[in-house]
Amino acid sequence: MNPYAGRWPTDWQQGQYNPHVYIPPSYYNQPYYNDQPAGWHTVFDRSRPTSKWTALNPILASDMTHVRYDIRKPPREGIMISTWQQISHVPALASPTHEVHIISKAFPWSINIRAPAGSVVTCGAVFDALHAMLQEPIADSEWGIVALDKTRREAIEKAAKARQDKDKDKEKRLKRVDWLGDTPMFKGLEKDEDFEKKRLLPGSAGVAETWVVRFGKP
Q1: Distance CA 123, CA 4 (A)
Q2: Are 74 and 61 in contact (CB under 8 A)?
Q3: What pTM was computed for the model?
């Protein structure tokens, strides 16, 4: 039996581009069947070990996830195809959630993931949103943040060169993913309310489902 039957929209709409808002495309309009591969927890099965953050899908939780994903690659390339097919369209949170805000101690940007009306934010949308945001070029004003920090600047330039050589990128532009240096591996989402409060721009409205993404070395 499909526990999510009827929950998914019949038509996703790709919204106008906004670098701070990610609206998942149509391929997430898929049913979810409870047949994860061996080793995966049944999503939100309370009879099994749970994450410290019980509202979050264990696929995404930093203390539970088994997903090893190099954020430099599109999720369909960086995550095993059999795993991706199982996890991409499952809900990111236990309760119906239409907006998720992601921040990080590893970079200065933030991103909102908004599901179209009648649908929910999925795990696949989270992975895709992170990858898409980090593929953006580093702006002049952003480079100014690290221009006087020799250690960080050299780490970014080293990561960029390695990526460009591997991808045969002739454009030689720095990308946001280079900001991660030698820590491009997704290590999961977690809650950090103190950091969340400090990170919130004064005068702006917070998002209830704000999560901090962690990265690490391969």
Answers
A1: 14
A2: no
A3: 0.80
CA–CA separation, 191 vs 213, rounded Å?
9
Write out the two tokens for 151: 């250690």
For CA atoms 78, 81, 85, 87, the dihedral sign is negative
Question: How confident is residue 16, by pLDDT bands cut at 50, 70 and 90?
Answer: very low
Of 87, 95, 75, which Cα lies nearest the Cα of 41? 87
Tell whether 69 is covered by a domain: yes
User: Which residues span the domain enclosing 63?
Assistant: 33-140+167-216
More confident residue, 15 or 51: 51
Burial track 189-200 (b if 16+ CB lie within 10 A, e otherwise): bbbeeeebeebb
Residue 37 inside a domain? The answer is yes
pLDDT tens for residues 89-116? 999 999 999 999 999 999 999 999 999 8
Does 198 have pLDDT greater than 70? yes
- CA nearest to 164, candidates 172, 156, 152: 172
Backbone φ and ψ of 129, nearest 5°: -65, -45
The pair of three-digit structure tokens given for residue 153, joined into one six-digit string:
């600047």
- Is residue 151 left, alpha or beta, with left meaning phi > 0 and alpha meaning psi from -120 to 50? alpha
Q: What is the C-alpha to C-alpha distance for residues 16 and 23, in angstroms, rounded to an integer?
A: 9
193 lies in a domain? yes
Here the tokens at position 174 are: 């720095």
| Amino acid residing at 155 | A
The rounded percent of the chain whose pLDDT value lies above 90 is: 72
Which residue is associated with the tokens 């119906």? 96
* Number of domain units in the chain: 1
**73, part of any domain:** yes
